[in-house]
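Journal club side-thread
Mid-discussion, someone asked how the predicted structure for our own chain would compare to the paper's figures. Pasting it here so we can look after the session.
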Amino acid sequence: MTLAVITLLALVLFVNVSAVSAANTTTVDANSIIKSSDTVKNYVETKKTVPSTVTVGTKKVTSQQYLYLLTSTVTNLNKNTKKSVTVKTVAKAPNPVESVSTGTLPKSEYVKLSGKITTFVNTYGRLPNFITTSKGKMNPDNLIYTYSKIVAFYKTNNRLPNTVSVAPWKTTSGEGAPTTVSGSTQAKINTIGYKEATFRRAQGNSNPTTMEKIGWGDCWASSSWLYNKLSAIGVKVRIVQCVGGSYPLHRWAQINTGNGWVTWNYAKYKSLHIGAIGYGYKVVKTYTG
């Protein structure tokens, strides 16, 4: 009789502990993660930084936790499943490092890397300082942006992209903005930037000359106008165009003043036009002086 009572008490204790453990486990569904990806991608492209927190469904997570959710979801989507993902406690990378070059990662590579990231987090409880790719080392902020683009592509196209574009984080964040040009050249660049910001953004006019006359134009008119004005003062400039996503015809300008090609800083001049929307890009036209 005593043995039976002890056994029963042990069983009750086990059930109660299991129930508490389950109650303390938080998960978010795949659809909520997928839905949030566009928000994060657009935030990075507009604010030039990674958000400190992200709302996924009804749960607010840190950017470190969000990378874990993204990479776990990419791994699952590659297996044609939309499993919920556990929200783990994830610490920041102590010493982020980056030395990546502009290019693209094939699907096979970024899927493999997503597994490495989740394994690292599960093992060490923090983000890695970098992940080594075929294009070099990528820091956590760049990884968050890259995987948000991948999942955002899935959201739009219901499949993972065949490739994903990558670039140095300083290019995306604006840290690679012109620093080596002379004061007079920078003043000319600023004048062009503030002038371009006076043009309204609207569809129906793709001609830069016409835009200057009527005061409005689309992204093709704006990027061509910047190309014409910047090349006229000897600044290396090029026009790039999306190759996928929801905006395959979108164009914007990039310049190179000694630190590599960087997206024109539309936000600095409060331009109504914008760069780096959509998925990846191709170079349309280049002036190198």
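Post-session note: Residues 11-24, 176-180 have pLDDT under 50 and may be disordered.
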